[in-house]
Amino acid sequence: MSASVIDGKARAAALRKSTAQAVAQIEKNHGFKPGLAVVLVGEDPASKVYVRNKAEQTKECGMNSFEHRLPEETSEADVIALVEKLNADESVDGILVQMPLPRQINEDKVVLAIDPKKDVDGLHPENAGRIVLGQPGLVPCTPQGSVILAKDAVGDLSGKEVLVIGRSILVGKPVSLLMQNENCTVTMAHSRTRDLADHCSRADIVVAAVGRPEMVKGEWLKKGATVIDVGINRVPAPERGEGKTKLVGDVDYESAEKVAGAITPVPGGVGPMTIACLLMNTVFAAMDSRGLERPSIS
Ligand code: NDP
After folding, report:
1. What span, in angstroms and rounded, lies between the C-alpha atoms of 298 and 296?
2. Domains of the chain by range and CATH?
3. Atom 14 in ligand 1: which residue has the minimum CA distance?
4. List 57, 93, 98, 160, catalytic entry
5. Which residue is catalytic, options 93, 119, 121, 204?
6. Cβ 231 under 6 angstroms from ligand 1
């Protein structure tokens, strides 16, 4: 029997709808609209698409969207000056600086300049620390989206054996902490892990965030496991014509779906959840900064 497909696109649409309903209630009850500012430096084509999608979806949810486009050669000081201006701007509740930044700009310094209360990407050390401490804060979007999909598929995660493959600050580490906060027993694998297949065979949930196309094989999985594939890899697709490419995950979908109980596809799995969680975080940031209770968004 093949695995059930975890439809991240539909789940993200539901989350955005719930966010839009919360925004409408906030406007009615408190008389303001949350606002998200997105900063794009340079001309990276993928980043431009992300920023456009973020702006469109922010507006669709009824929030204010502020776009700041700066030229490739912008200095670090100028990016930080803009961030500081946005920190002080009361109409801006969330700030997202699109990564990667051009070489002359230190990304860590820019992230540090963002007011942690407006850090809707959840990358500031204060928000990272809050996850470690199990305190409420702003949770990074892709890890949050991964956990939501796992919960949808599995239900209560308490006591589940989770294998997180990858330990990056952006994905693997926060996923492992969020899973621990859900009372899972978490194993973290990385490039020095010995016998990854053996670790996989024990996991009820496998989260793959490696950046290696189709690395995780179906034969490694425990029967019925839930597979959350965070990977987005562009690979050649000669079957689609000369020079064509396609997106694949870090999991070999074809073999995995024969063994797994549920699996996220790529594209259409974790990917769409990232922006949906960003919009939800913007609402939370707007409420937190005004000392108001967060609405329930699901
Ligand atoms: P990084 O390159 O920062 O981290 C990759 C991790 O994988 C590292 O911890 C590395 O280990 C580990 N790793 C590398 N090779 C192996 C191996 N052979 N076996 C086990 N572990 C290995 O990547 P990111 O975390 O930023 O991204 C991971 C994937 O997720 C990428 O495909 C990226 O495109 C995708 N992604 C998707 C997003 C979305 O859906 N919106 C958002 C962000 C990322 P070590 O630490 O030892 O080097």
Report:
1. 7
2. 33-117 (3.40.50.10860), 141-271 (3.40.50.720)
3. 191
4. 98
5. 121
6. yes
Ligand 1 mean position, distance from CA 288 (Å) = 31
Name every residue whose Cβ is closer than 8 Å to that of residue 283 and which is 6 or more positions away in sequence.
19, 22, 23, 26, 34, 63, 294, 295, 297
Residue-wise pLDDT for 153-166, tens only, equals 999 999 999 999 99
Identify the helix (H) or strand (E) that includes residue 178: helix 172-181
CA dihedral 176→40→295→186, nearest 10 degrees, is 0
For residue range 201-250, list pLDDT tens digits in order: 999 999 999 999 999 999 999 999 999 999 999 999 999 999 999 999 99
217: annotated active-site residue: no
Catalytic residue status for 109: no
Expressed in angstroms and rounded, the spacing between residue 214 Cα and the centre of ligand 1 is 12
Ligand 1 centroid from CA 167, angstroms: 7
- Complete DSSP assignment for 94-145: EEEEPSSPPTTS-HHHHHHHS-GGG-TT--SHHHHHHHHHT------HHHHH
What is the spatial distance between Cα 231 and Cα 136, in angstroms, rounded to a whole number? Answer: 27
165 touches ligand 1 (CB under 6 Å): yes
With 90 as the cut, is the pLDDT of residue 293 above it? yes
Q: Ligand 1: does its nearest atom lie under 6 Å from the Cβ of 149?
A: no
Q: How far is CA 192 from the centre of its chain?
A: 25
Q: Which of 212, 155, 211, 213 is nearest to 184 (CA)?
A: 155
User: How high is the pLDDT of residue 1?
Assistant: 75
170-183 average pLDDT score: 97
Annotation says 98 is catalytic:
yes
Query: So what's the pLDDT on residue 168?
Result: 97
Ligand 1 center–CA 27 separation, angstroms:
39
CB-ligand 1 contact for 199 (6 Å cutoff): no
Token pair, residue 133, equals 């401490």
